[in-house]
């Protein structure tokens, strides 16, 4: 089995579903389920807390007992079951509960995929950037197709699209896979608490983690309110998907070339550029509240997200042993992509109700400290 091709295919299929969840889920709760922006923001914010707890504790612990393939299989089946449970409910309380459950299982697929990729990079020599670029391509395809589907059938089609994508992930679990992802962890690797202690004893890890928490958390308003914001400034639903895809197109270009062009760059340098690009992105959206500047700012996603994510993956694959990768991925997904984003989602929702564009400017409360932290610590911790 060709590990590079297998990983590329799995990233592609997973990000088809991520291209539904990330840009459209808040909009689906508002438009299809009848919630207010504040109610949907509250649900998604607490959903991120559930996601954070799951990816920090449940996912790394499961990875100590089951192979990567089995972990992904279990998470996929559970996610499918919860999407069915969504169908009859429309009240705030019931949607809150179901979303908590959904955020406990579905987003954990992201660190599961990245952890699998990290193992393949270490043991099979897989080119991470190349495989991850297929994930970004899947996201592009998903957002484009769903923008057309939503434009024709309405926001209620978002849930059905998610179900279809999860069935594709499930189908992939029954195809041949590289031997390394089928290996069950040995008993010696199952002391989760000791494993976590060892991870935190790597001196540079807490610093790198804090930096990526700040940079990735700053995407909270973009992930949750970009779809609604574009509607508010008069963009037709048919074109929103195309506009959102601009960001991921630049992300694809970055991931395709990253392993070749940036081999000599240290993670700290990559993170510094990412934080600066992120700051510029949110300032542009606030300063020029029109669709053309928003489209221009989308090119900076290659820096604000792509470069920061790649820097963290490079850091853990170069500095951590195999048994620590799932721990690091779980913490990264929990804190950087979930808990930090959850807090900023609540703040962004409050700012959005005042002035929509202010929700984006508010994100520099994270990116500016990230820049300062990198400058102060990069030489001492040598990351």
Automatic annotation (TrEMBL):
Its primary localisation, in coarse terms, equals membrane
The record ties this protein, via PANTHER family, to:
3-PHENYLPROPIONIC ACID TRANSPORTER-RELATED (PTHR23522:SF10), BLL5896 PROTEIN (PTHR23522)
Q: Where is the Major facilitator superfamily associated domain?
A: 6-355
Localization annotation: Cell inner membrane
The membrane topology of this protein is: Multi-pass membrane protein
**What keywords are annotated for this sequence in UniProt?**
Cell inner membrane, Cell membrane, Membrane, Transmembrane, Transmembrane helix, Transport
Where exactly are the transmembrane stretches of this chain? 12-30, 42-63, 70-89, 95-113, 134-153, 159-183, 204-225, 237-256, 268-285, 291-313, 334-352, 358-377
Would the keyword Membrane turn up in this protein's UniProt record? yes
Keyword Transmembrane annotated: yes
**UniProt name for this protein:** MFS transporter
């Amino acid at each position: 089995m060709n590990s590079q091709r297998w990983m590329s295919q799995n990233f592609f299929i997973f990000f088809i579903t991520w291209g539904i969840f990330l840009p459209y889920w808040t909009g689906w709760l508002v438009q299809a389920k009848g919630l207010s922006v504040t109610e949907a923001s509250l649900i998604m914010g607490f959903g991120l807390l559930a996601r954070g707890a799951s990816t920090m504790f449940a996912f790394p612990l499961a990875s100590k007992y089951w192979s990567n393939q089995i972990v992904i299989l279990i998470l996929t089946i559970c996610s499918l079951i919860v999407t069915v449970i969504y169908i009859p409910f429309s009240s705030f309380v019931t949607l809150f509960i179901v979303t908590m459950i959904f955020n406990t299982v579905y987003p954990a697929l992201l660190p599961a995929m990245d952890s699998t990729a990290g193992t393949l990079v270490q043991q099979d020599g897989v080119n991470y950037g190349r495989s991850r670029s297929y994930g970004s391509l899947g996201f592009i395809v998903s957002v484009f197709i769903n923008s057309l589907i939503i434009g024709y059938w309405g926001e209620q089609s978002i849930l059905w699209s998610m179900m279809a994508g999860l069935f594709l992930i499930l189908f992939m679990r029954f195809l041949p896979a590289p031997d390394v992802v089928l290996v069950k962890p040995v008993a010696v690797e199952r002391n989760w608490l000791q494993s976590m202690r060892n991870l935190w004893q790597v001196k540079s890890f807490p610093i790198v983690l804090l930096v990526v928490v700040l940079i990735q958390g700053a995407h909270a308003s973009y992930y949750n309110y970009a779809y609604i914001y574009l509607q508010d400034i008069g963009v037709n639903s048919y074109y929103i998907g195309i506009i959102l895809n601009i960001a991921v197109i630049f992300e694809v270009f970055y991931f395709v070339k990253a392993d070749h062009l940036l081999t000599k760059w240290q993670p700290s340098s990559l993170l510094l550029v990412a934080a600066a690009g992120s700051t510029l992105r949110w300032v542009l959206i606030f300063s020029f509240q029109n669709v053309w500047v928003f489209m221009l700012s989308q090119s900076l996603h290659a820096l604000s997200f792509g470069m920061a994510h790649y820097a963290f993956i490079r850091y853990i694959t170069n500095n951590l042993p195999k048994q620590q990768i799932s721990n690091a991925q779980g913490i990264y997904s929990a804190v950087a992509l979930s808990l930090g984003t959850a807090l900023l989602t609540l703040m962004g929702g409050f700012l959005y109700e005042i002035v929509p564009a202010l929700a984006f400017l508010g994100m520099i409360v994270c990116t500016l400290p990230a820049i300062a932290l990198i400058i102060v610590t990069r030489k001492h911790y040598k990351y």
